[in-house]
Amino acid sequence: MLLPIIKTNHSLHLSLLPYLVCFLPLFSSNSKEDYQAMAAREILNKMKEKVLGSTDSDSGKGKSKMSKNITHGFYLVKGKSYHPMEDYVVAHFKKVENNELGLFAIFDGHAGHNVPNYLRTHLFDNILKEPDFWKEPTDAIKRAYDVTDSTILEKSGELGRGGSTAVTAILINGQKLVVANVGDSRAVLCKNGVAKQISVDHEPITESEDIKNRGGFVSRFPGDVPRVDGRLAVSRAFGDKSLKKHLSSEPYVTVEMILDDAEFIILASDGLWKVMSNQEAVDTIRDVKDARSSAKRLAEEALARKSTDDISCIVVKFQ
């Protein structure tokens, strides 16, 4: 007896669970049917893992050893799409010789999770390998982004043809904050209660001339957002080999000194920013002391506002 397997965007469909359950008792005890029964149970278990795991949230927190006032927290929640979670985060402090680095990032993948997962494990290492990182962090980060993207394209057979946006923040000794991004994952700094966006949303409509100069086009279909070649809703990203001639992976990089007026920074994927302005996000968590609770509140507020995308938030508190 053969059982049909329904897939939706690589995720086994929940509607098949009762189907498998009702068929399990029909298998007899001979070896062939035992094997089929075992296979069906294995499929059932994997389906449960996929379906139940896709709704789980993830969170964490930590603090600086150099400055006890600096803490961080993150919170991720799966969106309502059928594909597995495609957001990945990095959030930890790392000692490098006599320096402390806070490494924070959100990678929002599309058309698969391999590229954002690769970025999670390799991008910061590539940045810190740049010999002039300490003297010229902006140039070092731009080179590291380029090297990382080139490697992802070379490994497209292994990683697939998907891509990812990115926003990264490196806090150096609790005093200097270096933020970089490609795509629409965003960084917002709160200074004396006022939101200051310190990243750039790379949207096709704002970079349409550059896209056209590379031989591409920007679609503007009714009821849809502008897209590069009618496909991708951001103009800069890692990966996306089939579109790379018309895309850029050069990051926008900015440096902020953390002074007394800096309260916290929010890094988040577009699942938050689609439903909330920068100032609304700041106002939502300004009275929350705990960083992880702050990230969770932002995600929950985005859900309450009917965000359907994956939502990832990191909050770093400076006070």
From TrEMBL:
The UniProt keywords, alphabetically, are: Hydrolase, Magnesium, Manganese, Metal-binding, Protein phosphatase, Signal
Q: Which residues form the signal peptide?
A: 1-31
- PROSITE patterns documented for this protein: PPM_1, PPM_2
A molecular function (GO) held by this record is: protein serine/threonine phosphatase activity
Q: Which cofactor does it need?
A: Mg(2+); Mn(2+)
EC number(s) reported in the record:
3.1.3.16
Lineage: superkingdom: Eukaryota
Q: What Pfam families does this protein map onto? A: PP2C (PF00481)
- Catalysis performed (reactions): O-phospho-L-threonyl-[protein] + H2O = L-threonyl-[protein] + phosphate; O-phospho-L-seryl-[protein] + H2O = L-seryl-[protein] + phosphate
- EC top class, as a word: hydrolase
Q: Where is the PPM-type phosphatase domain?
A: 71-318
Query: Which InterPro entries does the record match to this protein?
Result: PP2C, PP2C_BS, PPM-type-like_dom_sf, PPM-type_phosphatase-like_dom
Q: Which family does it belong to?
A: Belongs to the PP2C family.
PANTHER family the UniProt entry points to: PROTEIN PHOSPHATASE
Q: What is this protein called?
A: protein-serine/threonine phosphatase
Q: To which species is this protein native? A: Crotalaria pallida (Smooth rattlebox)
Q: What is the lineage of its organism?
A: Eukaryota, Viridiplantae, Streptophyta, Embryophyta, Tracheophyta
